[in-house]
Amino acid sequence: MDINTLYHRTVESWTDRVSGVKDEQWDDPTPCSEWTVRELVNHVVGEDRWTTPLMRGRTIEEVGTDLDGDLLGDDPIGNALRAAGEATTVVAELLPTGGKVNLSYGPEDVAEYVHQLAADHLVHGWDLAAATGGDRDLEEDLMRDLGEWFAEREELYRSAGLVGPRLDASGDLQTELLAAAGRDARWTPPKP
Q1: Alpha-carbon distance 183 to 126, whole Å?
Q2: HSE value, Cβ hemisphere, 13 Å, CA-based, for 159
Q3: Distance between CA 106 and CA 59 in Å, rounded?
Q4: Beta bridge partners of 101
Q5: Which among 5, 64, 81, 125 is least surrounded, fewest beta carbons within 10 Å?
């Protein structure tokens, strides 16, 4: 599938899961042990909010600290949905033009950056579903496309500390993709 469709579908999957977060779940733990539900959603909202300036050619230095801290405010779901909508709009507009974006490690092809965003939305969508009791099932074609893309980058991501250790897993596509991303597909929230 083309990268724009892949990206949009992963964002839709993410926003569906965000929309299901209940008021009492924002402080709950997630499979990302260092983040609560709110911190996980804030992380992805940060990615979405960075998408527009980076796609429009701004550098991290130019944006500065404008997108640091709490981006969810008093309306976490609304702010998450708005950020996702803005990001998908700019990707649809500018992805076809190609070019480069300026990331923390230097210039990167726009298509590669959008793949990174799609992977983040898909895997963190699973994290959010696991934490909140939502639908954990990921779409097979999204997993297949992103799994093939990630296989060539997995060791780079791991060596940079962007994913945890690969877990031993065999079985279905979802279990293997999650294991590659350092997740245990059987994760459940700890009992209080």
Answers
A1: 10
A2: 4
A3: 10
A4: 108
A5: 64
**Distance, CA of 133 to CA of 137 (rounded, Å):** 11
Domain 3-23+31-138: CATH architecture, name and number where available: Up-down Bundle (1.20)
Length of the chain: 192
pTM of the model: 0.94
Q: List pLDDT tens digits, range 65-83.
A: 889 999 999 999 999 999 9
Residue 103: strand pairing partners: 106
* Location of structure tokens 């839709």: 12
What token pair was written down for 27?
């402080």
Is the CB of residue 147 less than 8 Å from the CB of residue 176?
yes
- d(C-alpha 95, C-alpha 3), whole Å: 9
Residue-wise pLDDT tens digits, 85-94: 999 999 999 9
On whether the CB atoms of residues 128 and 29 are closer than 8 A, the answer is: no
